[in-house]
Amino acid sequence: MTLAGEDEQLFLDRVREKVPGAVLVHDPERMAYEMQQLREYFTGERHTFDVEFDLRGTDFQIAVWRALYDIPYGETRSYLEIATAIGNPKAVRAVGGACGKNPVSLIIPCHRVLGKSGAMTGFSAAGGIDSKQKMLHFEAQHTQTGLFAPQ
Methylated-DNA-[protein]-cysteine S-methyltransferase DNA binding domain location, by residue (predicted)? Predict the structure, then answer.
């Protein structure tokens, strides 16, 4: 699955850049559970994912990705807040670098990370600032609170 409007070859190149030696297998039956969750996300019915993945990166990158995963749907954090959350408040630029290496940028929501002033930054490897704005806008439209909020 690619981001909206993304050329499939660019997607494959991006995956292989982030995960050298990656082999992509098209197997809809094997991915049915994950694809259903993505469909639910894009209809606004799902706000969290329940998928398994094998994250490969440095200890620092994995700590950043786990902190990103914990950002609630429809909310944002700054790079500084993520750096502070992982116990390294001076590593703001390195957090940005780890976001850029995020191998599953929708499920681990790096689009929810903004500059300290709230500025849209980063996201170049996942569709650019325009895609980041669209994803945040989408989530804002589908954020509900109360008794009937999606899970």
Answer: 59-140
- Any domain includes 2: no
The reported pTM is 0.76
Distance CA 129, CA 12 (A): 20
**CATH number of 95's domain:** 1.10.10.10
Total number of domains in the chain? 1
Mean pLDDT score, 124-132: 71
Angle among Cα 92, 65, 90 to the nearest 5 degrees reads 15
- Kindly give the interhelix angle for 59-69 and 92-100, rounded to the nearest 10 degrees: 80
Q: Where in the sequence is the domain holding 66, given as residue range(s)?
A: 8-141
Within a domain: 27: yes
The catalytic position among 71, 110, 114, 126 is: 110
In a domain, 148, yes or no: no
What per-residue confidence (pLDDT) applies to 127?
Answer: 67
Backbone angles phi, psi at 61, to 5 degrees: -60, -45
**Residue 99 a catalytic site member:** no
